[in-house]
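[09:14] KT: can someone run the structure on this one? pasting the chain below
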Amino acid sequence: MAFAYSILTEITTIAAATAAVYTNPAGTKAYIRTIILYNGNTTTETVMLWNVPDNTGAVGTAGATNKFYEQEIAPNQTVFIEFAAPGLILEDENDTIQADADTASKVTIQIMGATE
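[09:31] RB: done, C-alpha cells below
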C-alpha cells in the first residue's frame, strides 16, 4: 500500500491547557509520520503529546495511559518526532492528537502523514 504523505495540520500554536491539535475526520484512517515542534519562547517549554482514542464517538480525554511524549524544548529549538511506516494510526472519527505546553502560543506544531 503506497501513501502520498502530506501536511495534515498547518503550523499552529499549542495552548497552555490540553487540547486537540489534530482530530481524525469521519470515514478516514490517518497515519501520522512526523510531528514538528518549535519553541519560539525565550524560556524552556515542556511539551506533552497524547494519542487519545475517541470516547463513544466523541473526542476523548488525555491521560497517563495515552501520553506518548513529554520533553523540555529549549528556546528557538526545533524537534522532529518521526514514526516508522506506516506511522501512528488514528482509525476512528474523533481520535485525536492532543498537546499542552507551559505557555500558550509559544510552541508551534505541525503534523504530517497520510490519510485513506
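[09:33] KT: thanks! The mean pLDDT is 95.
[09:34] RB: yep, looked fine to me
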